[in-house]
TrEMBL record:
Coiled coil: none annotated. It comes from the Eukaryota. It catalyses: peroxynitrite = nitrate. InterPro entries: Calycin (IPR012674), Nitrobindin (IPR045165), THAP4-like_heme-bd (IPR014878). Gene3D superfamilies: 2.40.128.20. Residues 10-161 form the THAP4-like heme-binding domain. Pfam families: THAP4_heme-bd. This is THAP4-like heme-binding domain-containing protein.
Length: 166
């Protein structure tokens, strides 16, 4: 992936740009068995005031696909406010809004939509936190609330930034 030009409005959060890979994610939730996963996430600039995003995860041992999502991260120019629109492969869309600084992006859902024929329980809230630990190491924690379960940590992973020729 060749980096695109960086629009002035996203320069304050340019630390998040790139391809990030995790070989050691963990997932838990009160209603499911704990699991491990690998994941690749990409935040890329194409010169617009929006960052393109996609993520794909796969089972650590079996290697089969687990979850896909894609979306857009936008910054309110001149502020530390961000909005993240994400579509998930199981029929959920979320608008997550929050704050960022030079090494953190913290988001909480302000709107969640789902397909009318999706199975219960429904996701009612998401919280996501990206933390830049050092230049090429980032962590992500996701918490989720459903119609049956209060907000609870769901996934956590540590990523390394990947340069294309790796």
């Amino acid at each position: 992936m060749q980096p695109g030009p960086i629009h002035d409005s996203i320069k304050p959060i340019s630390w998040i740009l790139g391809k990030w890979v995790s070989d050691s994610g963990t997932g838990t939730y009160p209603t499911i068995e704990a699991f491990s996963y690998c994941e690749e996430i990409v935040f890329e600039s194409c010169g617009q005031p929006t960052i393109n995003y996609y993520a794909r995860s796969w089972h650590t041992q079996k290697k089969h696909p687990m979850h896909f999502e894609s979306g857009f991260l936008k910054i309110n120019p001149g502020t530390n406010r961000a909005a993240f629109v994400v579509a998930h492969n199981f029929g959920l869309t979320s608008l997550e809004e929050g704050d960022f600084d030079e090494s953190n992006l913290t988001l909480k859902s302000s709107n969640i939509s789902r397909m009318e024929f999706d199975k219960e329980p429904s996701v009612t809230s998401l919280e996501r936190h990206f933390i830049l630990m050092k230049e090429n190491i980032m962590k992500q924690h996701v918490s989720m609330q459903t119609s049956n379960t209060p907000i609870t940590t769901h996934t956590s992973a540590t990523y390394r930034r990947v340069i294309d020729d790796e």
